[in-house]
Structures are given as structure tokens and as C-alpha cells.
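This follows on from our talk about sequence and fold. Please put the record directly below this note.
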Amino acid sequence: MEQTSTQSGTLIDIELYQTFLVIAETLSFSKASDLIGRTPSAVSMQMKKLEGMLGVSVFAREGRTVRLTSEGEALLGYARRILNLNEEAVSLFKSPDVEGEVRFGAPSDFGTRFLPTFLSRFARSHPGVNVDVHLDGSPQLLSEMKLGELDLVLYTARSDSDLGKGGEIVFTEPLVWVGLEGGISYERDPLPLAVSTSGCPWRRAARNALDETQRSYRISYTSFHSAGQEAALLADLAVAPFPASVVEAPLQVLDERHGLPDIGNYHIIMKQRPGARKATRAFAEHVAECFREMALGIAGATA
């Protein structure tokens, strides 16, 4: 489209940023229209308006595919920051009186995967709330909540039957087999596994999948922390069940082409203590929203 200079003082409607971000994350105008509740033509008109205000094209269509232009990539970071700041400002004035302490429990690997972003955003929007974080295994966290030692817990579950009373699914993604790129561990018989300790739903799911296909295996390495399991993978000593979103080079996903069965999905469950205080409810709502944003980003990456 013809580029025009942007007038000084131009204000862009925040809804345009919201629509732009959804399209950027899904790479699909039709999926974005479903997610934001607008018709595809309305979504297209919004983006034409945005591009007209900026004087650049932010998306390029190549057949049925959509990609960000270099200008769109640059705008993406600004859009996220603007929307985050808007959320923080609204939260601050909608809940100015929220204060107190939240005793929060989560699995150990969540400490680096999710919590830094979740906690920093919540601290900005709710400065009067202190979140006391406790990391442990899912069974231990649920036991501590039952004893009244935790207000809010995240834990993992393999199936809906593992939800437990009062649990809410906040995130779902595939479990996949992971091994070293170019490695040969998956060829060994019995298959060497690196897994967490007994009671871990990922460990149980992996063993069930292998049992159903009658693939022989042995537990070669056990570590409560995923970093310990990853060490065995990097040494090409074993394979392991990991969430799909954490797999990065030099590790790779292993599937039926490597003779390994599908493991299926796993759930992240959130559970609040009965009679939770306002601070706990506010943090629970924030965590659920963060996971919704993550799910949208993963959907866009796999579209």
C-alpha cells in the first residue's frame, strides 16, 4: 500500500492494537475474528485503518498464509507493552484496596518457565499484595493445601479424572518424547527413560503409553527437577517426556518416526483454598489470564 507520513499526535485506538496482536499471534485473520468476536471483514477493516494511520503495511499475505512485515515485527513489541500497561492501569484503579499475602504453590519447573513473568506483572498491578511462592511436587502441594498451608496451587494432571474437587484447567498442551538431536537413545532396547520421581503425571503418562504399545523400557535416570532429566538427554543417555513448549535445540521432539507412541496432553490445574481472600482471588484471576495469553501464543506458533 502507498505509504504516508504519520501526523504528529496521532492516537491509535487500543482495540486496533488488540486485534493486531491476536492476528500476529495466530497468523490468521479468520482465527482472529473468531477469538475477538468480529466478522473477518471487520477485522480486515481494522487492520486497514491501523496501516493507514501508521503509513506502513504490518501484514503481508502470501496465498492463504499471513506473515508480519518488518514494520509489523517492530510494532508487535510496542503493542504488547501498550496493552500490558493498559491492563496494569485498569487493574490498579479497579482494585486499589487489594492487599495482603497469597501463599502460592507450584511445581518446581514452573519457577523458571512461568512465574517470572506472572509475578512481575502482578506486582506492578497489585503492589499491595505479597506473593509467597513455594515450589514442590504436585502431590506434596495438594497435601499442603489440604493442611491449610497454601491458599492457591498450580499442579499438573494427565487426564480430567485427575482434576480433583475444585480444580480448574488453566492450560493444556501436548507431552512429547524428547531426545538429543542426532542422538541414538531412542534406538536402544529397552528404551532408557529419564523421568521425575514416583507420582509425577508425566512419568505415569509416558509409562502408560509404552505399556499400551508393548515397548520395553527401563527407568535409567530419576530426578525431581527437570534440569536433572535434561542432563541425561544432553548426554544422549535417555529420552524423556516433556511439555512441547519447552523443547529447544540441541534437543528435539521424537515421535512415531522414531518408534515412540503418542503420549497425549497434560493439564495445568489451578485450585483455590475454600473461602479464599480477595488478594488470593485477584492473583488467581491474573494467573488464569496469563495462561490464556500463553495458549493463544502457542496456537499462533503452530498454525
